[in-house]
Structures are given as structure tokens and as C-alpha cells.
Amino acid sequence: QLAIALCLLRHFYSTKALYFSDRLCQLRKSCIQNYKLMIGKDKIDLTVDPPPDLAIEIDVTSKTQISAYEALRVPEIWRYESKNLEISLLQGEQYVKSLISPTFPTFSITELIPRFVEMARTIGMSSALRAFRQSVREQIQDS
Fold first, then answer.
1. Cα–Cα distances in Å, from 127 out to 38, 43, 69, 111?
2. Number of C-beta neighbours around residue 68 at 10 A
3. What's the CA gap between 89 and 97, in Å, rounded?
4. What are the CB-based long-range contacts (under 8 Å, 24+) for 109-113?
5. pTM of the predicted model as reported, rounded to 2 decimal places
6. Which residues share a beta bridge with 76?
């Protein structure tokens, strides 16, 4: 399940998804703002680099403490655990749960990722990834 979730999230959060995010960004004023600054970097130096726009955690045995994200001022966190994707948004000094990702507002992330993780378990990774890509393409074309 962990490998499936990682693979789906990697495909969603790929350069292609970020390209489409740029297009959506122009329309909706929401996007991954700092990814272009981070391309090609092997390590992040927070004394000069901006904090991540989005943190993603997947079924890990030891979760990062929320206070670490608060200190870095990471605007959005996705946590996938036990067949559930939870989105948390930084509001002032603390995180609040959300059903919508402001980074990808036209995608039902909390439904999309768990659905395709389960699909990968039942019909296989390749078929699920093809269906996932098709679903993302359709949603982008409709926006």
C-alpha cells in the first residue's frame, strides 16, 4: 500500500502536474510557488531556500511532528495513512483540516488518491496509473 501511494503521489506531483498547476495558477492565483527555485537541488538550506510549499507524508512509522512544519511555515501538508488522505492547511500559527487542497483546488485529492491506491491493489499498478493519469487529464481539460 505504501509503494502504491508513493507512486500515485509521485505521478500526481510530477513536473507535468506542476506544469498544469502553473496553468491553473494563472487562473486561480494558487500554485506551488517555489518549485522552480528548487529544481536541481539535492539538499535544502532553509537559511537561504524557501520552505516547501507542500509536505507529503505516507504511512510512515514515525511522523514528523506538526510543530516542525509550523516552525518552517509549510502552508500545506498531505498525510496518507490507513487508506485515508488528510489535508492540513496553515492558518495563522496552527494547522486546520481541509477537504480541498488550495494548491490543486480543482482536484478532489482526499478522494482521488485513496481511490486509486485501492484500484492499484485490485487491478494492478500499471492499470491504476493509466486510469489515474487519464482522470487527471480529464479534470485538467474540464477546468
1. 32, 34, 35, 18
2. 11
3. 6
4. 109/78, 109/85, 110/84, 110/85, 110/86, 112/12, 113/5, 113/8, 113/9, 113/12, 113/80, 113/85
5. 0.72
6. 54, 89
The DSSP secondary-structure symbol of 74 reads -
Say if residues 100 and 71 touch (Cβ distance below 8 Å). Answer: no
26 residue type, one letter: Q
pLDDT in tens, the chain (143 residues): 445 555 555 555 443 444 444 444 443 444 567 767 777 777 878 788 888 888 888 766 677 888 888 888 889 998 888 888 999 999 999 999 999 988 888 788 899 888 988 898 899 888 988 898 888 888 777 76
For 12, 63, 75, 109, 121, the CA distances from 2, given in Å and listed in that order, are 15, 14, 24, 17, 11
Q: Which three cell numbers stand for residue 124?
A: 494492478
